[in-house]
Amino acid sequence: MHAMSSFFYLTQIHLEFGALKQLARECRQHGIHKPLIVTDEGIKAAGLLQQALAALSGMDYAVFDATPSNPTEAAVRAATAMCQIEHCDGLIAVGGGSSMDCAKGVAIMATHPGPLTHYATIEGGSSRITNQVLPVIALPTTAGTGSEVARGAIIIVDDGRKLGFHAWHLVPKVAICDPGLTLGLPPLMTAATGMDAIAHCMETFMSSAFNPPADGMALDGLRRGWAHIETATRNGHDHHARLQMMSTSLQGALAFQKGLGCVHSLSHSLGGLDPRLHHGTLNAVFLPAVIAFNASAPAMQAEDRLARMANAMGLPASDHSAKALGDAIRAMNQGLGLPTGLAAMGVVEAQFADIIQGALADHSHKTNPRQATAQDYREMLLASM
Question: What number of other Cβ atoms are within 10 A of residue 186's Cβ?
């Protein structure tokens, strides 16, 4: 076994309809007297911010509602300034991955000196992030990124790179996963974030690190997500489907401490080049090509990983090939109304060189079960057009 086997599962998670009512108690539990609430305009417009504020029952707070759909270093700076002016002693992230990642950026910047990039994973910054970070409580309003239980944040820094920041200190102290907050999520956003969660389950399951607990969570998350994403997308008020999708998101992220792979190195790179592209949608489009590329990896074959994923997706036992999985994912994307390929998203071949350069430098590149070359990435991009 080449990969060391070391894992960490330790944060408070409330997963149920009505979990939001735990908010004020959890703030007190973690010594937060005046939180900065990090959110975005859309969450505010949807009335979800109001629900969170009501759950604070009379606590003092400040609100930063200018998180962009892909969080930037500039947004983190602005939120940090507000946090300091308002003397906030903790953070509540209300929203999707963007709000949660922005809050994690503030947790670092409000308590650590120097520029944010100093703490980026590929700059050797993980060990510089200390237990001085501000405590974060996460309230996901999408069932997608799983950032509420993850040690990482993805932020577009001033020079345009989309970088990861990873430290166990960044794991939110509490994840309040109330599927009620996702009931109004529009169909396309439900589909894109749901496929993001499914991609997390599949990609971390393929990663070769030895972590059976993570594999178990990822496979079960895939089974739940695959069975319920269509219902959640078609009927957004189906309580059972919403709960299952929230669990898929949570499980994918509890598992992906194993590491992700080429799907994410490609989507981080392309998402940095064109921040208008949705991360979950990119993951959905890249999955089939990466599964095909990974199929021959020794770790995939030794653990029979293709067949186990196919089983979880309910594919017929007669066909557990990489092509069958890829076809099932493409059909699912199309049925959910997601783009069928990169070309439909406006990506052109002239961007390939830049996408590949970013992918090779991404932190997820190293944990793919099979090492990808520039040429491999070019072929995956062509297959995903």
Answer: 12
Per-residue pLDDT reduced to its tens digit, 119-148: 999 999 999 999 999 999 999 999 998 999
- What is the distance between the alpha carbons of residues 117 and 157, in angstroms, rounded to a whole number? 7
pLDDT, mean of residues 193-202? 97
Q: Are 338 and 195 in contact (CB under 8 A)?
A: yes
Residue owning tokens 């009927």? 235
Mean of per-residue pLDDT scores for the chain = 94
Strand partners, 95: 140
pLDDT-derived band of residue 4, with 50, 70 and 90 as boundaries?
A: low
How many angstroms separate the CA atoms of 375 and 348, rounded? 17
Span 303-307, mean pLDDT? 93
Banded pLDDT at 5 (limits 50, 70, 90): low
- Tokens read off for 261: 């792979």
Query: What's the chain look like in SS3?
Result: CCCCCCCCCCCEEEECCCHHHHHHHHHHHCCCCCEEEECCHHHHHCCHHHHHHHHCCCCCCEEECCCCCCCEHHHHHHHHHHHHHCCCCEEEEEECHHHHHHHHHHHHHCCCCCCHHHHCHHHCCHHHCCCCCCCEEEEECCCCCCHHHCCEEEEECCCCCEEEEECHHHCCCEEEECHHHHCCCCHHHHHHHHHHHHHHHHHHHHCCCCCHHHHHHHHHHHHHHHHHHHHHHHCCCCHHHHHHHHHHHHHHHHHHHHCCCHHHHHHHHHHHHCCCCCHHHHHHHHHHHHHHHHCCCHHHHHCCHHHHHHHHCCCCCCCCCHHHHHHHHHHHHHHCCCCCCCHHHCCCHHHHHHHHHHHHHCCCHHHCCCCCCHHHHHHHHHHCC
Model's pTM, two decimal places? Answer: 0.94
- Tokens 């979990």 correspond to what residue? 19
Summarize pLDDT for 37-78 with one digit per residue, the tens.
999 999 999 999 999 999 998 899 999 999 998 899 999 999
Residues 6 or more apart whose Cβ sits within 8 Å of residue 379: 289, 293
